[in-house]
Amino acid sequence: MKRVTRADRPSGPATADDTYDVIVVGGGPAGENAAQYAVAGSDRTVALVEHELVGGECSYWACIPSKALLRPSQVLATARHMPGVGEKVSAHGVDVPAVLARRDGLTRHRDDSSQVDWARSAGIDVVRGRGRLDGERTVAVTGAHPDRPRILRARHAVVLATGTVAVVPDTPGLRAALPWTSRDATNLLEIPRRVLVVGGGVVACETATWLRQLGVEELTMVVRGSRLLPRVEPFAADLVTEALRAHGITVRLHAAIRQVERPDVRETGIGRIHGGPVTVELDDGTRLEVDEIVVATGRRPTTSTLGLDTIGLASDAAITVDDHLTVEGVDGDWLYAVGDVAGRAALTHMGKYQARVCGDVIAARAEGRPLGGARYRASADHHQVPQVIFTDPEIAAVGRTAEQAHADGFDVEVLEADIDVAGAALSRDDFTGHAALVVDRATDTLVGATFVGTDVSELVHAATVALVGHVPLDTVWHAVPSYPTVSEVWLRLLEARRS
């Protein structure tokens, strides 16, 4: 069946009252997937509303550019620790201009034309502008003419997929100093000599890693808490902290900024140093002078401009959804939310997962089909979430930590082992790592797993399959790891319970 889209129809004026089967507000990965799945294989119509770039935060300001900045130094480190190769590798660091050029190529210089082409090929109309709810099943899109919004109406569903924005704390002088956020750090065009990173979570640790690798000479992290990465296993956070310090990064725990001064402030654009030196006073009286501050203290859902008040919700309400991704507190099963704005698991791959479920639910409801199958419920959000933190060493984890499992009432056994296997030794001479499985004694199944070490990111999917599938460890014993690979650590972990 040939799909008909608005691209095939005469365009009306900006004030046209357009009706679609589905309207998705937010054109990031979650929004794209929701739109695609909601209309796949049908003659339903869908509009994707986006006021910035189709492809969203991940494609241009987060996942893709950050990993592009991290990977070259990881490759260089592997080469340096491989006899027969290390001797041929320059003692200097990476070629920074080449690294930045590759990053810009992967992000297409923040040009979303290829994403728009894909959307159109999938039967998705891209509507440029900022979308907000304007009553039931209605979205007002503000574009070049704010006084003349374009009104879109949905027959079946509206999906909110507007993500989150970085939060800059209201510390005296901090916002006025125009600090970098993650968008500046991933799209940097200049390498500051001295940098202060505020925060100790994933974004802060990954940012500190690549900034140091790209040539920042003095780098300090200011962390309110007692350790970095508070949501992962302590042993994994400790190894990352040790590595950051070994690379010359100062990590100040139990610390906070009291005041910031930057007399020479300039709005120079994303990724450029925003003026002259910055003087930072910490809560213990220490004063630091740096060339740029990177604030990585968290993000908040983009809900305040969504027009929630037009459908009976508070304008600044936190959006909550059920396992069909239907927004709670709204009658009629027509409003959905996916991705970071839904507040369940703020990771791109989880947003895309939610979007696939959401799209299938919308399609089934539109066609009058029942929602009895597992594919129509987002269950992985409930303690089955995998994540990779691309620091050096990497952390790859899924499910609960041991502490979280105990808090949730599980009687657990923790199996631990160093990643000291033939595959690791062959990978590179300085390979280090550690792994832990959190096992529910009652069912003999995994409730969590963590790997930390060199290039461990590919280990987590096997743990995810075992956890989601509730595979007993006695069965996992018969999943024989290939030799010689790093996956042999699974054998070591299972052997730990035999000793």
Automatic annotation (TrEMBL):
UniProt GO BP: 2-oxoglutarate metabolic process
Entry note: cofactor: Binds 1 FAD per subunit.
Keyword Transmembrane: no
Residue sites binding FAD per the record: 67, 131, 340
Binding positions (NAD(+)): 199-206, 298
Cofactor: FAD
Domain called FAD/NAD(P)-binding: residue spans: 20-354
Domain named Pyridine nucleotide-disulphide oxidoreductase dimerisation: residues: 385-490
Keyword Flavoprotein: yes
GO MF term (any one): flavin adenine dinucleotide binding
Pfam families per record: Pyr_redox_2, Pyr_redox_dim
UniProt superkingdom: Bacteria
Family statement drawn from the similarity comment of this UniProt entry: Belongs to the class-I pyridine nucleotide-disulfide oxidoreductase family.
Protein name: Dihydrolipoyl dehydrogenase
Higher taxonomy: Bacteria, Bacillati, Actinomycetota, Actinomycetes, Mycobacteriales
Gene that this polypeptide is encoded by: merA
